[in-house]
Design goal:
With about 270 residues, the chain is mainly α. It has eleven helices and no strands. It is globular.
């Protein structure tokens, strides 16, 4: 049995991947372990006992920080951004299937915010709201700031999806007498549904974890990333690590649920095809 000899480039890439994994999951592993400190444990190793004390402490009244309210704000904002990102990205993808006057300028204007520093966008939106006499809040100014971050990604994803989408399916449906709405509802939408779920997941996670574009636009009340950042200079117990563990597990749960839905849709589509 012949075995292919590994090249030098293979070992370089393998080493790079190993370093990447260590940088990605090393800090998460440390936070996960330290969140199980005993009641008298501190913020560093070694562990002083093992318990779930700090997880229960999350639900108690804190001297500094408001976990529950900041989580609800981040979750609500993430859902708002997710819905708008999916709808606008879908409409943009459908619109750009055909060339129209100004399409190129509109495309570059849409993705321009990706190359502008996030803190500049946050500062600009915050200043505009203040100068207009409007009070910045997570559901208004922060909502707009997050859309400048999620919409370009969503639009680019849908462009890629429709670029590979064959119009033959729609032509066949129309030949069978289907209307434009029926063609979209029963042909196009089921085929692109997994991609739309991916866009929604992308929009939610980008918004839920966003810090820079929220810093100057959230108003008087923090979202969860801002709350965690504020706690790093005030909280001296492992409750901060417990919060990090819970929020990380929540993010992974959202991803797994979305992947499960996408897998279910693909299986259903495979059965009907």
């Amino acid at each position: 049995m012949n075995h292919e000899k590994r090249t030098f480039e293979f070992y370089v890439l393998a080493a790079f991947f190993l370093i990447f994994v260590l940088f990605l999951y090393g800090p998460l592993s440390a936070i996960l372990i330290l969140s199980f400190q005993g009641p008298d444990g501190g913020l560093t190793f070694p562990l002083n006992g093992v318990s779930v004390h700090w997880f229960f402490n999350l639900f108690e009244k804190q001297a500094v920080g408001d976990f529950g309210a900041s989580f609800r704000r981040s979750f609500t904002l993430g859902l708002m951004v997710m819905v708008v990102t999916v709808v606008v990205s879908l409409l943009a993808g459908l619109a750009f299937r055909r060339r129209f006057r100004g399409s190129t300028v509109l495309f570059y204007a849409t993705v321009a915010s990706l190359v502008v520093p996030s803190i500049i966008i946050s500062l600009g939106i915050g200043v505009v709201f203040q100068q207009s006499g409007l009070k910045p809040a997570f559901y208004s100014s922060a909502f707009g700031a997050h859309l400048t971050w999620t919409l370009p990604f969503g639009v680019l994803i849908m462009f890629a999806v429709f670029n590979r989408f064959s119009p033959a399916y729609e032509e066949a449906a129309r030949d069978l007498g289907a209307t434009s709405w029926q063609t979209f509802r029963h042909v196009v939408l089921p085929m692109i549904a997994p991609s739309l779920i991916g866009v929604g997941l992308f929009g939610f996670t980008l918004s839920y974890d966003e810090f820079a574009r929220t810093l100057m636009t959230s108003g008087s009340y923090n979202t969860l990333p801002l709350e965690i950042y504020g706690m790093t200079t005030n909280v001296t117990t492992p409750v901060l690590y417990a919060l990090g563990t819970v929020t990380t597990l929540f993010s992974f749960t959202i991803i797994l649920v979305a992947l499960g839905i996408m897998l279910m849709l693909r299986r259903r589509q495979a059965k009907t095809s």
